[in-house]
Amino acid sequence: MEMNEYARRVEDIQNKLFQTAVLWLGDPSAAEEALDEAVYRGLKGCKRLREPQFFNTWMTRILMNVCNDEQKRRKREQSWEVLPETAVEAFDALPLREAIRRLPKELKELVILRYFSGFSLREASELLEIPQGTAATRERRALRLLRLELKEEEQA
Amino acid sequence: MNRNQEFLELTREIETLQAPGGSVERAMAQVRHAKRSKYVLRPLTGLAAVFAVFVMLINVSPTVAQACSKVPILRDLAQAVRFSPSMNEAVENNYYQPIGLEQTHGDTTVRVEYLIVDQKNVNVFYRVLSAPKIEPEDPDDPVEHSFLLSPEIRKPEGADWEYSISTRWCETVVPGAMQYASVQFRNTDVPSELDFQLSLVEPEEPDRNLPEVEPFVFHLKFDPSDTAQGNHFEMDQAFALDGQKFRLTGIDVYPTYLEFTLESEADNTAWLTGLDYELVTEDGTRYARPDGISAVGNPDTPEFNTFRVDSPFFFLPTSATLCITEAEWKLKAQPKTHVDLKTGTAENLPPESELVQVVRQDGAWKLAFLVSAEHPQCFDLRVMNAADEEYGTDWDWWSIIPWDASDTPAPEGKIYAILTLNDDSVEEIWLEPFCTGVSQLTPPLELPLDLR
Asked: Which of B293, B342, B328, B345 is nearest to B433 (CA)?
């Protein structure tokens, strides 16, 4: 993919990427840095993207890697943020946005991709490189934990 | 409002968020700058050598500094410090020094832009203007790999400096972006001069032969009499945390952080390994723990005795309250945990922890410990052999055992601490318990502080 086309495609989805990063990191300034980093990494690698129809998935994966890197860095400096899946009362007590942010990583990925980034279950499972059945199981667990009853058409 | 209604409101709120704009332009500028630098900056190497011994004046007027065409505008510094209330206030109160020192080695150019210096800290703000590219092994790998930045200071022979260095954001090289390192001196004040070194090192993965880049060494000279001195307040307050006795002995307030020091009683049965707290000033302003180093201890024990919060230096109150809400402990009598990797068994595990699985995969050992979710770091991150030599390891925390196909979540109140040891020839390891107990303080312990 040429750089100009890359730029055009990123402009089309950058709001969605930014929103994903805000949900992931909980902080717009950190999300802004994550977006900048992801766009830069994508630009450097865009010539190797041979199937442009997977651009959204590819860029989202880069963004998630950047967000995961930042969370790992935070783990070295800050007290722990994630709640275990069994801390039902703790999740109930949190505003939904904070509850999502504090989900265990494998559940948070699913919730954000499926219900805020607009990916289907199949697309999310391919992006995360997990079987679709595993993705479905994790999605059910996450929704149960967040006390959400959502159907396919209710995703953002 | 039920959760589904909350979801609809959250989606509406999130959908209104707009990306700040300019990400693509910045990325393209970085790429173009990296290419241009190879042809424009190399001829300036001679000038860069002159700048390398530039002597700085502390608190140079920004208007004078900005007259220099090589000094970037203040906005970049303000952007870089926005994560830290203390640093933000320092910049807003013109407490920073523009520098503009630049060096080039081969394809790599680094420029030190600003310093924020006080009696105990040197914060160095710099940019990597260009860096060599790392070609990926896998042509389909969408993720670019970059060098990592390793800041250090070169300690002169015989100097007994004790210091810590922390960095902000990812340590990867991001050409053109303002990055920073904070050097925090513990047993001495900031010296009158030091050599600040930045090295580009290979990323952890992939493991290949990459071009070597000579480290960059910037010689920085300070006049300590022009550096803001901290305010020291003697204290003598005895208090107890869950039966363990301490004395608050002093408070030091610097532009970049406030620090309080505790002395523990010799006959305490546990080391203090963590503290949750905040500082509340007389007008109700709350100061939290800063990013980066927030506690310092004696290297001979696991105990921390100096703790930091963001600093009210520029608006120093006459009184404040230190509110302590939680304390973490390590029992003095707690022995090291021994793990026999072949049998998958462990001895002397800290309380509330259990070794659940040990597997061998892809040349590595992977261990799953079931630990308290509220305080999941029950071990020091170091993993050692019988001779106390460290292994390279990686820790992560999951709600499931990642290699276990059943995907069964951890029981209530628990989480899995996953340790990966990248050498499956090792037969046994020792781990140092870090936290063997936690005390929640409800209501918080409040220590009144007189700052007159």
From this structure: B328
Amino acid identity at B401: I
Contact list, B26 vs chain A (CB under 8 Å) = 36, 39-40
The span from the CA of B411 to the CA of B400, in Å, is 10
Task: Let me know whether B121 and B44 are in one domain.
Answer: yes
Domain match, B93 and B222 both: yes
Contact between A112 and A17 under an 8 Å Cβ cutoff? The reply is no
Query: Domains in chain A, ordered, with CATH?
Result: 1-81 (1.10.1740.10), 83-156 (1.10.10.10)
**Do residue B345 and residue B198 come from a single domain?**
no
The amino acid at residue B113 is: E
ipTM of predicted complex: 0.86
Which range has the worst mean pLDDT, A79-88, A136-145, B76-85, B422-431? Answer: A79-88
Optimal mutation site among A1, A24, A37, A60, interface B, most CBs of chain B within 10 A: A37
Angstrom distance (rounded) from CA A99 to CA B252 = 37
pLDDT per residue as tens, chain A (156 positions) = 777 788 888 988 999 999 999 988 887 888 888 898 899 888 877 877 777 778 888 899 889 888 887 776 666 555 446 777 677 777 888 888 888 888 888 888 899 999 888 888 888 888 888 888 888 888 888 888 888 877 654 444
Looking at residue B170, its pLDDT comes to 46
For residue B415, which residues of chain A lie inside 8 Å, CB to CB? 82, 84, 104
Q: Which residue has the tokens 């279950």?
A: A121
Which residue range forms the structural domain that includes residue B443?
A: 231-332+438-450
B239, part of any domain = yes
| Contact assignment for A39 to B141 by CB distance below 8 Å | no
Average pLDDT, integer, range B183-191: 82
Same domain membership, residue B200 and residue B246: no
Same domain, B92 and B209: yes
Which run of H or E residues covers position B259? strand B258-264
Min distance A124 CA to chain B CA atoms (Å): 17
Peptide bond into B402 cis (omega under 30): no
